[in-house]
Write a structure and sequence with these properties.
Largest sheet: 6 strands, antiparallel, barrel
Strand content: 35-45%
Number of strands: 12
Helix content: 10-25%
Order of helices and strands: EEEEEHEEEEEEHEH
């Protein structure tokens, strides 16, 4: 489990096409400290497993299903990525509960800067829009954010200078894809309510 608090901006240093999968090598001095084979690291909000670790780099295999459902397939050598290690039991939950399981991808539609923050408008796939509510939580490229405005086909978030400086959302531009993960609690509630209504029939 993750919290959506990005620990560092990493970099893709190699991409190997394996046919039905890809192998990424990524640099991240913070998240690789003490890393071992089999550990999990979130890359732009996608939970990946460490295959190899050497120095400040690690490799991870990404299967075709993940490449299809996330924006990781658009990564290339030199791409910057948000990195986060799983939260430790008993640690502070700085963001919200994040699984690292992408629900869909959106696209940066617009950026509106102001003096101390920036509003970013992001498209919202139809299959996940019902889970997004004003002032609720959403994960964008692994970043725990609060929804400012929620519409049927888009939402907005307000980014403080720290988020702009320390994550990929500081440099992504209109047209760029982002990974989206909605609050898992909303999905469980929906499933339980549906099961209850079915039982009442």
């Amino acid at each position: 489990m993750f919290t959506g608090i990005v620990e560092e901006l990493g970099e893709v240093t190699a991409v190997e096409n394996l046919g039905d999968a890809s192998r990424f090598r990524l640099r991240g001095p913070v998240v690789t400290e003490g890393a071992r084979h089999g550990d999990s690291i979130a890359v732009n909000g996608v939970c990946l497993t460490v295959v190899e670790h050497e120095g400040d780099e690690f490799t991870a295999d990404v299967m075709a299903e993940t490449l299809k459902r996330s924006s990781l397939g658009a990564l290339a050598v030199g791409s910057r990525v948000n990195l986060e290690r799983p939260t430790a039991v008993g640690a502070r939950l700085g963001g919200h509960i994040v699984q690292g399981h992408v629900d869909g991808t959106g696209e940066i539609l617009a950026r509106t800067p102001s003096e101390h923050w920036e509003i970013v408008k992001i498209s919202l796939p139809a299959n996940v829009s019902r889970y997004v509510v004003e002032k609720g939580s959403i994960t964008v490229d692994g970043i725990s954010l609060t929804v400012v405005e929620a519409a049927s086909d888009h939402f907005t978030v307000s980014l403080i200078p720290t988020t702009l400086a320390l994550t990929t959302l500081g440099v992504k531009q209109p047209g760029d894809p982002v990974n989206l993960e909605v609050d898992v609690i909303a999905k469980y509630v929906e499933r339980l309510l549906a099961a209850g209504q079915e039982a009442d029939r």
